[in-house]
Design goal:
The complex is a heterodimer of chains A (356) and B (337). Chain A is an alpha/beta fold and 356 residues long. Chain A contains 13 helices and 8 strands. Chain A folds into 2 domains: 304 residues, Thiamin diphosphate (ThDP)-binding fold, Pyr/PP domains (Rossmann fold, 3-Layer(aba) Sandwich), CATH 3.40.50; 32 residues. Helices cover 46% and strands 9% of the residues of chain A. In chain A, the strands form 2 sheets. A 6-stranded parallel sheet of chain A has the order 2-1-3-4-8-7, sandwiched between helices. In chain A, β3, α6 and β4 form a beta-alpha-beta unit. By secondary structure, chain B is an alpha/beta fold. In chain B, the strands form 3 sheets. Chain B has a 7-stranded mixed sheet with strand order 3-2-4-5-7-6-12, sandwiched between helices. In chain B, α1 packs parallel to α7, α3 runs parallel beside α4 and α8 packs across α12. Classes of the chains: A alpha/beta (356), B alpha/beta (337). At the A-B interface, α5 and α6 of A face α3, α4 and α5 of B.
Chain lengths: 356, 337
C-alpha cells in the first residue's frame, strides 16, 4: 500500500525550522510557553514516579517522552473546549488547567482527583480503552446543538484503535459532523504489544479515510507540528467541518505504569537513543539556542518555580483531609437509594462500635 | 389497593396500549423539555421497529428524534457526551438482547460518572429496551437480563406492566437526575388498552403496586409475568386460596415496604420472573423477605422462573416461560407446606 500519510514536521530533531510557512506564527513567547509547559509536566511526571516508589502514591502511568504531544495539543484549545483524557494524559489535563494537586489525588486513589476545576470541561480519565471516543462525539455534538464554537479533543493511544468504541465513536462523529479532534498518541506500544502486532495498517492516520474525515500523521515529538496541526483541526471543527484524526508518532521512555517492567518486552536502549536524539524538550532547547532565545537565567527561574509548584502540590495532596467514608455512599445517585442508605447506616454503626 | 401518588394535570384520557403510552410519554417530554432527545436505530422515519417513536420525528424534527448508526456502544457512548453537556437523551436499544455491546459504556461510565466526579458530571439518561420472550421472535431478541443491571450500582431499572404505568414511569425516568434502564415487555406491548391521561404525570420510581388483595400467598412479578401471576391467582381462588398480587414496577430500587407488608400478612410468597433463576432478581426479593419477615414465614419462598439455559429458539419458548400452571403448582406447594 502506498504510504499516503508522511510524518509532518515543522521543527526537526536538530531544532531547525523545516517548514517556512510557520516562521511568522512562531513567536518567542509561544516557544517559551511550549518549553515551560513541557518542563512543568515532565517535572510532575518524575515526581509522581518518585512518590510512587516511596509508597506515597498509587500505581502511576508515566508519559515522559510524550510531552510535545500533550502540551502542544492542550495549548491549542480554547478555555471552553472539552478535554477527554485517558489515564496517561494528565500532562495534557495539567496544561489545559487541571489542578496539580487534584491529579496527584487521583493517583492516590481519591475521588476528589476527578473533580475538575470550576468551569473546566475536563472529563475524568478514561480507564477502559477507547470508551471516551464516543463521549467526545456526544459532548461536541451538544456544543454544536447549542450553537457555540466550542470543540472537543479526545486523547487515545495506538492500542485504542483496535477497540470497537474507536470505530463506533469515529463513525458517530463523522455522521453527525461533530466538532472533535481525535488526537492519537502512537507511542508504538500497548503495554507490551508493539504496533506491528496491534494492526496490519501502515498508519493510524489512514483510518480517517474510512470515516471521510481529514487524517494527519505528525511527528508527535515536534511540539510545533502538534500545536499547529491541532489548532488547524480545531478551527476546522469550529467552522462546521467536523472531526479530524491526528496521529502523533511518539514514544514513552518508561514503563506502561509503575507496575510494569518494559525490559521484559523491549530493548530499553532504544529509549535512551530517542532521549538523546528526538527528545521533545531537547528539540525546543536546540531551536531556542539556534534562534538566540535560550537564556539560562530564564530556564533556571522557571525550573525553580516549577519545582516549588510541584512540591506545593505534593504538600496539598498529602495534607488533604482524610478520605471521608460518606463519599463511599453519597455520590452514586443524587439521592441514595434505600439499599445504599441502609448499607451506609449499618456500616457506620459497625465502625463506630469498633472505634469505641 | 395502593393509592396512586401520580400527579395528573389532565382529566382527559385516551385508551392506549402500552407501546402507545410509551410514545405518548416521549411526545409529552419532547414537548415539555427541549433538552430531551430521542436517539436510536430506526427511531426516526420508521418510528421504531415496534412503532414506539411513531410520528415523533415528523413532529419534532430530525435533530431531536435522531436515527443513529447501528452501533449500541456508539449510541450510549455518544449519549453520555450529550448528557454531561446539558441534554437528556432517551436512547432506544432495539432489543434488550442487543444491549451487550453497550454494556461496557453503561457499566463503566453511565452508572458511575456521578460517583467518579462526586457529582461534577452526571448522566441523566434513559435507556429504553424492549425485552422478553413469548412473541415468536428470532433468537437473541427475547432476552430478559434485568439482573445484569440491577446488580450494577448507579442505574435504576424500571419495568412497567400497564399503559398507565408505562407513561408515568417513563416521564419519571426522563426527569430523574440519574440513569434509568426502562424495560418494555414486547409480549404485552399491545395486549390490552387502558385509560391513559393526556399530558404530563409521573409514577414514582421505586414503588410497586398491589393489583389484588388476598390473605394466603403473596405473588410478586413484573412486566409480562404480571398477567401470568394474575391468572394463577384466579385459578387459586377456585381452590379457596386468595393472593396478594404485587407488580414490582421498579426492579432497582425494589419497593421493600410493599413486599414486607404483604408477606407479613400472608406468610407465603411466590416470585415469578422470566429471567434465568440463578443470579435472578427473585433471589434479591427472597433476601429482602429474609431480612424483614423471616419469622412471619409459614413456608419456604418459591420461585417460578425461566430456567438456567439461554432463552431458547421460539419453538421452545412456551416451555421456557413461566405459565399460570407452573405458578399454581408453586402456590399449592407453599400453601400445603
Amino acid at each position: 500500500m502506498k504510504l499516503e500519510f508522511p510524518i509532518l514536521q515543522i521543527v526537526d530533531e536538530n531544532g531547525n525550522l523545516v517548514n517556512e510557512n510557520y516562521r511568522k506564527a512562531i513567536t518567542e513567547e509561544l516557544v517559551k510557553k511550549f518549553y515551560y509547559h513541557m518542563i512543568r509536566i515532565r517535572t510532575f511526571d518524575r515526581k509522581a514516579i518518585s512518590l510512587q516508589r516511596q509508597g506515597r502514591l498509587g500505581t502511576y502511568a508515566p508519559f515522559e517522552g510524550q510531552e510535545a504531544s500533550q502540551v502542544g495539543s492542550a495549548l491549542a484549545l480554547e478555555k471552553d473546549d472539552w478535554l477527554f483524557p485517558t489515564y496517561r494524559d494528565h500532562g495534557a489535563a495539567l496544561t489545559f488547567g487541571a489542578g496539580m494537586s487534584r491529579i496527584f489525588l487521583y493517583w492516590n486513589g481519591r475521588l476528589e482527583g476527578c473533580v475538575p476545576e470550576k468551569g473546566k470541561k475536563i472529563f475524568p480519565p478514561a480507564v477502559p480503552i477507547a470508551t471516551q471516543i464516543p463521549h467526545a462525539a456526544g459532548a461536541a455534538l451538544a456544543e454544536k446543538r447549542k450553537g457555540t464554537k466550542n470543540a472537543a479533543i479526545a486523547y487515545f493511544g495506538d492500542g485504542a484503535t483496535s477497540e470497537g468504541d474507536f470505530h463506533e465513536g469515529l463513525n458517530f462523529a463523522s455522521v453527525f459532523k461533530a466538532p472533535v479532534v481525535y488526537f492519537n498518541q502512537n507511542n508504538r506500544f500497548a503495554i507490551s504489544v508493539p504496533i506491528e502486532k496491534q494492526m496490519n495498517s501502515e498508519t493510524i492516520a489512514q483510518k480517517a479515510l474510512a470515516y471521510n474525515m481529514p487524517g494527519f500523521r505528525i511527528d508527535g515529538n515536534d511540539i510545533f507540528a502538534v500545536y499547529f496541526q491541532v489548532l488547524e483541526a480545531l478551527k476546522f471543527a469550529r467552522h462546521g467541518g467536523g472531526s479530524t484524526l491526528i496521529e502523533a508518532v511518539t514514544w514513552r521512555y518508561g514503563a506502561h505504569t509503575t507496575s510494569d517492567d518494559p525490559t521484559k518486552y523491549r530493548d530499553q536502549s532504544e529509549s535512551e537513543v530517542i532521549r538523546e536524539t528526538r527528545d521533545p524538550l531537547l528539540r525546543v532547547e536546540r531551536y531556542m539556542k539556534s534562534n538566540g532565545i535560550w537564556k539560562e537565567e530564564w530556564v533556571q527561574k522557571i525550573t525553580n518555580e516549577i519545582a516549588a509548584e510541584v512540591e506545593q502540590a505534593v504538600k496539598e495532596m498529602e495534607n488533604y483531609p482524610k478520605p471521608n467514608v460518606n463519599d463511599l455512599f453519597d455520590h452514586v445517585f443524587e439521592k441514595p437509594t434505600w439499599t445504599i442508605s441502609q448499607q451506609k447506616e449499618q456500616y457506620l454503626q459497625l465502625i463506630g462500635r469498633e472505634a469505641r | 389497593m395502593m393509592i396512586e401518588k401520580a400527579i395528573v394535570n389532565s382529566t382527559k384520557t385516551n385508551q392506549l396500549t402500552l407501546v402507545q403510552a410509551v410514545t405518548d410519554g416521549l411526545r409529552t417530554m419532547l414537548e415539555e423539555d427541549e433538552r430531551v432527545l430521542v436517539l436510536g436505530e430506526d427511531v426516526g422515519k420508521n418510528g421504531g421497529v415496534f412503532r414506539a417513536t411513531e410520528g415523533l420525528q415528523k413532529q419534532f424534527g430530525e435533530d431531536r428524534v435522531i436515527d443513529t448508526p447501528l452501533s449500541e456502544a456508539g449510541i450510549v457512548g455518544t449519549s453520555i457526551g450529550l448528557a454531561v453537556n446539558g441534554f437528556k437523551p432517551v436512547v432506544e436499544i432495539q432489543f434488550l438482547g442487543f444491549i451487550y455491546p453497550a454494556y461496557e459504556q453503561i457499566m463503566t461510565h453511565v452508572s458511575r460518572i456521578r460517583m467518579r466526579t462526586m457529582g461534577s458530571f452526571t448522566v441523566p439518561m434513559v435507556i429504553r429496551a424492549p425485552y422478553g420472550a413469548g412473541i415468536r421472535a428470532p433468537e437473541i431478541h427475547s432476552d430478559s437480563v434485568e439482573a445484569l443491571f440491577t446488580h450494577m450500582p448507579g442505574i435504576k431499572v424500571v419495568c412497567p406492566s400497564s399503559a398507565y404505568d408505562a407513561k408515568g414511569l417513563l416521564i419519571a425516568a426522563i426527569e430523574d437526575p440519574d440513569p434509568v434502564l426502562f424495560m418494555e415487555s414486547m409480549r404485552i406491548y399491545r395486549a390490552s388498552r387502558e385509560a391513559v391521561p393526556e399530558g404530563k404525570y409521573t409514577v414514582e420510581i421505586g414503588k410497586g403496586k398491589k393489583l389484588q388483595d388476598g390473605n394466603d400467598v403473596t405473588l410478586i412479578a413484573w412486566g409480562a409475568m404480571v398477567s401470568v401471576a394474575l391468572r394463577a391467582a384466579e385459578q387459586a381462588k377456585k381452590q379457596g386460596i386468595t393472593c396478594d398480587v404485587i407488580d414490582l414496577r421498579t426492579l432497582y430500587p425494589i419497593d421493600k415496604d410493599i413486599i414486607t407488608e404483604s408477606v407479613q400478612k400472608t406468610g407465603r410468597a411466590v416470585i415469578v420472573h422470566e429471567a434465568h433463576q440463578t443470579g435472578g432478581l427473585g433471589n434479591d426479593i427472597i433476601s429482602i423477605i429474609n431480612d424483614t419477615s423471616f419469622l412471619y414465614l409459614k413456608s419456604p419462598i418459591e420461585r417460578v422462573t425461566g430456567f438456567d439455559v439461554p432463552v431458547p429458539f421460539f419453538s421452545l419458548e412456551e416451555q421456557y416461560l413461566p405459565t399460570p400452571e407452573r405458578v399454581m403448582k408453586a402456590i399449592e406447594k407453599v400453601v400445603h407446606f
